């Protein structure tokens, strides 16, 4: 099954992205065979998904995207990656950490130009200080990056929108993380920014019958229970359609190494937007039960 949803303009960047993007964190795992990774990445693109999101911290992800996509299909994809840390010999969230991180990403991805580069959840102080923004702008002015932005949540996300030095944001948007729907997203669109929604299925907390202590989905599981939500076998479809078609979301990224799951994601998105009554119901539930439910990093 191929993705039928039209490509969307990514803010004012000039980029066109698929409504459903691919989160490439999973394909960075060392225990995943190269043959499997090659199959997954090419299948993703074959099915109509062109936004591939990765990060410096996703282990082998960048170099595998470079090897299996950029080397052969660069003109078919929009690459998003994240930087700011882990560069040998320099301090995290410094000018060099960002600039050199972009240089290393270009090398790993085997591309001269990266479409989108995000600061990967740095703190407000780093943004205010400005070095990280200077480094992004330097790389952009040199033609090494097309669009620059911030990936993160809450008050730092809002600050990044108002800097006027960034063209895009990436933030958590899902049934259990809705505060941005009426705050950050409208502000970002007013500024002409591209928006990537991460965690559109909220780490799939419905997988667990009992509270998954210590699991990445634990916080969302607690919110799901507090909201008294139960969609039976329609969880994935409801969650994806809620996020992908919310005003302001240009693309929602989901990661998987299971091609059957990839097809299920595409099938859900191809059904289009939820009906307005259901959307109103889900938004109302979140507002009713929201106990300072801040965005999850």
Can you put this structure into words, describing what you see?
With 297 residues, the chain is an alpha/beta fold. The chain has a single domain, classed as NADP-dependent oxidoreductase domain (TIM Barrel, Alpha-Beta Barrel). 40% of the residues lie in helices and 15% in strands. The protein is built from 11 helices and 10 strands. An 8-stranded parallel β-barrel has the order 3-4-5-6-7-8-9-10, surrounded by 6 helices. A two-stranded antiparallel sheet has the order 1-2. Helix 2 packs across helix 3. The two termini are 32 Å apart.
User: For this structure, what is the CATH homologous superfamily?
Assistant: NADP-dependent oxidoreductase domain
- In what range is the share of β-strand residues? 15-25%
Please count the helical segments.
Answer: 11
| Biggest sheet features | 8 strands, parallel, barrel
Q: How many strands in all?
A: 10
Count of individual domains: 1
End-to-end CA span: 32 Å
Order of strands across the widest beta sheet? Answer: 3-4-5-6-7-8-9-10
Reported CATH architecture: Alpha-Beta Barrel
Q: What is the global morphology?
A: globular
